[in-house]
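New to this. Help decode the following:
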Amino acid sequence: MTNHVKEHDDLRRTAAVAADYTQLQGLINVTTGAGLILWALGWPSWGAWVTGIGGAVLVAYYRRHFGRAVGRTTLLPTLGAVGAAFVCCAAGYVIDSHAWVPVLTLPLLAAACFVVGYRIGYRHVGVTSAHWVAVALLVLSSVAPLLGLAAPGPRVGLLALGVAMVIVGVVDHLRLVATMKPVPRD
């Protein structure tokens, strides 16, 4: 009987991961985060290359190894959330670039976007403590100017966002790999 229960739990976990497969393709977030880190360190061209090429290669990697498990009910809200997050973070970057406020806007808006994204993208697999650590990192980085740890400006926010994306991306990829088996090749 315990073997039957274990198989049932494995099947439920696999179904949950398949339902949230779009969000769990974490290495794509890792390359985006690495691109943002490069941009924050003063190499925006390298950041764009890493993000663009890394994203294209990793989409192919996930498709080859795990197949397609994307339904419209998951993909459309995810794309909408990504677009809205991009607009919010771009607005935060502009505010942090042109106006001095006592806290950085970009990491605060990014933290809010992460929380909304968690609600949309992890409906079946849930959020781990590492996901909340990424949000905490963003919120804490927003007060860096108040603590005298950083001059006001968008680079601190970009760096924090990049690191948060790397953390979440690694965790998501490991959750995907631990649950899903690669698709057999023909």
